Amino acid sequence: RKEVEQDPGPFNVPEGATVAFNCTYSNSASQSFFWYRQDCRKEPKLLMSVYSSGNEDGRFTAQLNRASQYISLLIRDSKLSDSATYLCVVNRGDYKLSFGAGTTVTVRA
Amino acid sequence: ETGVTQSPTHLIKTRGQQVTLRCSSQSGHNTVSWYQQALGQGPQFIFQYYREEENGRGNFPPRFSGLQFPNYSSELNVNALELDDSALYLCASSLEDLNTEAFFGQGTRLTVV
């Protein structure tokens, strides 16, 4: 079983729509959680950390459910510039980050 | 810009050859991690270097090796290249605490033919 699993999508949404997707992780000892954004053929960049109480950053809301071992990301009022692959990332407190395969979001005009 | 630079940006090698990829970490960061990202997949952890020592390794064969230098820059070496080694190789620079952000370089796209 993969450490981090994501729905690959693609999610194809119109501008202004809300889109949400999840990822699940297998290691219950995982300690840190992140969403990274990756544009086509570019490097991943941190979108936001995910905290147990849930957190928002502008139009982006992240939630963590430790009991069910899943993380969610919600994007409100989608912009064309939100089109990207969103990578769910987990750290179990050791030396490596474990990445999901990514969820592709395409926002259309 | 993250301050993490990788070279070269693109590379084409023949099966069986050896390759060296380079990474300069962000100023103040003492930890460098290398990842391999195949097309359509997430980055997979290769290994990490902390203060010039290997600090952890993923599920990659010994022909993947690395170095970290006193200035915290790093090299990834791959011997006996195979076709499946074709991928984007990413270097991530961070402080030793992975609860803080890891900054990625733009990557080296390696094609093995």
Which spans of chain B have pLDDT < 50 for at least 5 consecutive residues?
none
The topology string of helices and strands of chain B comes to: EEEEEEEEEEE
- Indicate the mean pLDDT of chain A: 94
How many β-strand runs of chain A? 11
Of all chain pairs, the largest interface belongs to:
A-B, 22 and 26 residues
- How large is the share of residues in beta strands of chain B? over 45%
Sheet bearing the most strands of chain A, described? 6 strands, mixed
* End-to-end separation of chain B: 32 Å
List the total number of helices of chain A. Answer: 0
Radius of gyration of chain B: 13 Å
Compute the number of strand runs of chain B.
11
Topology:
The complex is a heterodimer of chains A (about 110) and B (about 110).
Chain A: E1 4-6, E2 11-14, E3 19-25, E4 32-38, E5 44-50, E6 55-57, E7 60-65, E8 70-75, E9 84-91, E10 98-99, E11 103-108
Parallel strand pairs in A: 2-11
Antiparallel strand pairs in A: 1-3, 3-8, 4-5, 4-9, 6-7, 7-8, 9-10, 9-11
Chain B: E1 5-7, E2 10-13, E3 19-24, E4 31-37, E5 44-50, E6 53-57, E7 64-68, E8 74-78, E9 87-94, E10 103-104, E11 108-112
Parallel strand pairs in B: 2-11
Antiparallel strand pairs in B: 1-3, 3-8, 4-5, 4-9, 5-6, 7-8, 9-10, 9-11
What does this structure look like?
- The complex is a heterodimer of chains A (109) and B (113).
- With 109 residues, chain A is mainly beta.
- Helix content of chain A is 0%, strand content 54%.
- Chain A has no helices and eleven strands.
- Chain A has strands at residues 4-6, 11-14, 19-25, 32-38, 44-50, 55-57, 60-65, 70-75, 84-91, 98-99, 103-108.
- The model of chain A has no long low-confidence stretch (mean pLDDT 94).
- By secondary structure, chain B is mostly beta strands.
- In chain B, 0% of the residues lie in helices and 50% in strands.
- Chain B contains no helices and eleven strands.
- Chain B has strands spanning 5-7, 10-13, 19-24, 31-37, 44-50, 53-57, 64-68, 74-78, 87-94, 103-104, 108-112.
- In chain B, strands 2, 4, 5, 6, 9, 10 and 11 form a seven-stranded mixed sheet that branches.
- The interface between A and B is medium-sized, with 22 and 26 residues.
